Amino acid sequence: MSRHLVKGLTFVGSFVIFSTIAGCISTNGIAPQEQRMGDTELATDAAIAHANQEAGWPAEQWWRAYGDPQLNSWVQTALDGSPTLAQAEARVRMAMAMAGVAESAESPQISGDASLTRHRWPTDYFYGPGDLADTTTWNNNAALGLSYSLDLWGRERSNTERYLDIAKMTAAEARVAQLELESNIVRAYIQLSLQYAELDIGKAMLAQQQGILALAQRRLAGGIGTHFEVSQAEVPLPETERKIEAVDEEIQLTRNQIAALAGKGPGAGASIQRPSFKLAEGPGLPSKLPMELLGHRPDVVASRWKVAAQAKGVDVARADFYPNVDLVASIGYSAVGGGMLEFLNAEKFTYGVGPAISLPIFDGGRRRSQLSQEAAGYDAAVAQYNQTLINALKGISDHLIRMHSMELQQGFAAKSVASAQRTYEIATKAYRGGLTDYLNVLNAQTRLFQQQLVEQQVRAARLATHAGLVVALGGGLMDKQEGPREQKMVPETVDVRAAQGAGR
After folding, report:
1. Sequence-separated contacts (24+) of 108-113 with Cβ below 8 Å
2. What is the separation of C-alpha 361 from the centre of its chain, rounded to a whole number of angstroms?
3. Considering its fold, how many domains does the chain have in total?
4. Is residue 24 in a domain?
5. Which of 358, 373, 404 delimits the end of a domain?
6. How many CB atoms lie within 10 A of CB 80?
7. At a CB cut-off of 8 Å and minimum separation 6, what does 105 contact?
8. Are 139 and 282 within one domain?
C-alpha cells in the first residue's frame, strides 16, 4: 500500500471521527427558558410599607411570646416526638446518603478479587492436545483494580452538587414541616382557649336564665307575675344546657387533636388544662423588603435549593454530550499450573494501566431528550420559586392587614360588650320593679352574651393572626444565608434564554 494512500485513509478517518464528535455534542439549541424574579419585581403594599421598620425577626421559639408554660411544653413535646417530624428527618438522612453516593463517584474506585480454582483440562480440540491435556491443575489469580474518572467536563462534580443541593432542599422542607407543626399546635391551643371562653359564657348564661326563672316564680308566688312569664323563663334552659354540652365535647376533641399533633395518645390530651395567654405586641418587620423579608421563610429557601439542584441537573445532562475519559489500572498475580500458592511470586506478577474512553456517537436522541427534560425541570422549579415568592408576600400582607383590623375590631367589641351589659342591667332592674316584661330582659340578656362571644372570637382571631404572621415571616427557623448563592441558581454550561413571546 502506497504512502499517499495511507495518508489519505488517515485523513478520511480523522475527518469521520471529528465529524462524529461534532455531531454527538450538538444540543440543537436546547436550553432553559424560565427567568427568576428579581429583587425589585415584587412590589410591596401599604401594609408592609408602614410596618415597624425597626423590629427584628421572630425568635426561633416564637410561641413563647404567648406566655403560657403549658403551650411551651406541648410544642416542645411535639418537636421531640412527632412522627411527622421523624419522617421529615428520615428524608433528610436519605437525601444526605444519596449525596454521599454521588460524591463517591469523584473518588478513585479500588477493588480486589482473587480466585483459587482446581481445573480439569480435557483432551480437546479447543483446549489441547498439549501439555495441559488430560491433566488437573490450579488456575489461580489475585488482582487489585483501580478506576478513576478524570471528569474533564465536570459531570461528576455537577452531579455531586446536585444531590447536595437536594439534601439542603430536603432539610429546608423539614423546617417547613416543623413550622407547620408548631403553627397547628398553637392554632389548636388558641381554639381551645376560645372554647373555654364559650363554656364560661354558656354557664353564665345558664346561671342568669335560672336566676330569671327563680325571679319569675317569686313574682308569681307574690301575685304580681303570671304563669306565662314562668313558662317563657323555662324555654331557653334546655337549649343553653345543650350548647354547654356541645362546647364541652369540642374541648375534649381539641385536646385529642393537640395530643395527636404532639405524637401522643388521647390519654395524654386529657391532662391539658385551660390555656392562659399573655400576648405582647405583635411582631414587626425588618427594613429590607421584600426579598430580605421572604428569604427567611423555609419554603422560599427550599424552593431556591430546588432551583439550584435543577440547574446542576442541566449541567450534568450537558456534560453527557462529551466523551467520557477514565483512568484504569490493575496489578496482580496470575498463573495456570503449579502449587496452590505458587502463583504469588514475582514471575507471575502482571499489571496494566491506561485511559478508557467512551464516545457517544448515536443514541437515538436519548441525550437530547435528557437535556430537554432537565431544562424543563429547571423551568418548572423556577416557576414554582416565583409563585412561592408571590404567595409568601401575599400571605405577609394579608396577615398584616388582619392584625390591624383585629386590633380595631377588639376595641369595638369591648365597647359593644360594655353597652350590652348596661342595657341588661337596666332591663333587669326594670323587671324587678315591675316596669317592663320578661321579654325585654331576655332580649337584653341574649344581646349581652352574643357580644361577649363576639369579643372572645375577635380575641382568638387576633391571637391566630399573630401566629399566622409569625409563620409567614418564617418562624425564626432560617436565615437567608442558609439558601444558595445567586450564581448557583443558574446552569454553568447552558445559558438560560428568554422564552419566545414571553414578554420578559
Report:
1. 108/146, 108/147, 108/148, 109/146, 109/147, 109/148, 110/144, 110/145, 110/146, 111/144, 111/145, 112/142, 112/143, 112/144, 112/145, 113/142, 113/143, 113/145
2. 42
3. 3
4. yes
5. 358
6. 10
7. 149, 156, 159, 160
8. no
> pLDDT of 383-435, one tens digit each?
999 999 889 888 888 888 888 898 899 899 999 999 999 999 999 888 888 78
CA–CA dist 204, 69 (Å, integer) = 28
Judge contact between 195 and 138, C-beta under 8 A: no
Please state, as a whole number, how many other Cβ atoms lie within 10 Å of the Cβ of residue 156: 20
**Residue 149: strand pairing partners:** 326
On whether the pTM is more than 0.85, the answer is no
Q: Which of 305, 337, 358 is the last residue of a domain?
A: 358
Query: Distance (Å, rounded) from C-alpha 177 to C-alpha 29?
Result: 40
What is the span of the domain harbouring residue 434?
31-106+167-182+270-320+364-489
Residue 330 lies in a domain: yes
Specify whether 336 is located in the same domain as 391: no
Q: Per-residue confidence at 271, pLDDT binned at 50, 70, 90?
A: very high
Domain harbouring 462, CATH code: 1.20.1600.10
Average pLDDT, the chain: 83
Q: Where are the alpha helices (DSSP H) in 44-149?
A: 46-49, 69-81, 83-104
Is 407 found in the same domain as 391? Answer: yes
Burial class (CB in 10 A: 0-12, 13-18, 19+), 450: middle
